[in-house]
Design a protein that fits this description.
There is one protein chain. With 170 residues, the chain is mainly α. The protein contains 7 helices and 2 strands; from the N terminus they run E-E-H-H-H-H-H-H-H. Strand 1 and strand 2 form a beta hairpin.
């Protein structure tokens, strides 16, 4: 289990995990460049509906929606293609220059060394990581009900803070 096929967002009733279904399931041992998405489950429609429901009241969602929506309507066969496109979208919205070095020859496997690394995050422990408390606090859509939710998708920061997002990360 990793974040290579999922994101977590705050919604009206708490945190929601949006997971992209993979052919081969959770025990996939393929190279990253070979991991196939299971598009028979209409994940994009479900994700987009959840995202619009969670963020339509955020101050900046309407501004970013036209550039993000096409990613949820294009069919992706490979997980790394989706991840690259969404990462490029995030980089362009934050207006940062990053040299992407791809690690497509890696296998989707956790090693013992990974698990010992204090920076290593997986869905089961991501809220326990020490640096979660070092992230910026900003206004979130459901903060009045849930309190501030740290360590969620960067999309949450972008939809809630817009052009200020980058400066909050520096």
């Amino acid at each position: 289990m990793s974040f290579q096929n999922r994101m977590i967002i705050p919604a009206a009733n708490g945190l929601i995990t949006l997971s992209i279904p993979l052919k081969g399931g959770r025990e996939n041992k393929e190279l990253l460049k070979e991991v196939l998405i299971d598009n028979s489950q209409r994940w994009q429609a479900r994700h987009w509906r959840t995202i619009t429901s969670a963020y339509r009241r955020s101050p900046w969602f309407e501004f970013y929606e036209p550039s993000l929506q096409p990613l949820y309507h294009r069919e992706y066969k490979l997980l790394h293609e989706w991840n690259l496109d969404i990462l490029r979208w995030i980089i362009s919205q934050l207006k940062v220059e990053i040299d992407l070095k791809l690690a497509l020859e890696q296998k989707v496997v956790e090693t013992a060394e990974d698990k010992q690394d204090e920076r290593y995050m997986k869905p089961a422990n991501y809220q326990d990581r020490l640096f979660c408390n070092q992230l910026p606090v900003y206004a979130q859509v459901f903060q009045d009900r849930l309190g501030f939710q740290s360590n969620v998708s960067i999309a949450d920061l972008i939809f809630n803070e817009g052009n200020k997002s980058r400066s909050l990360l520096v």
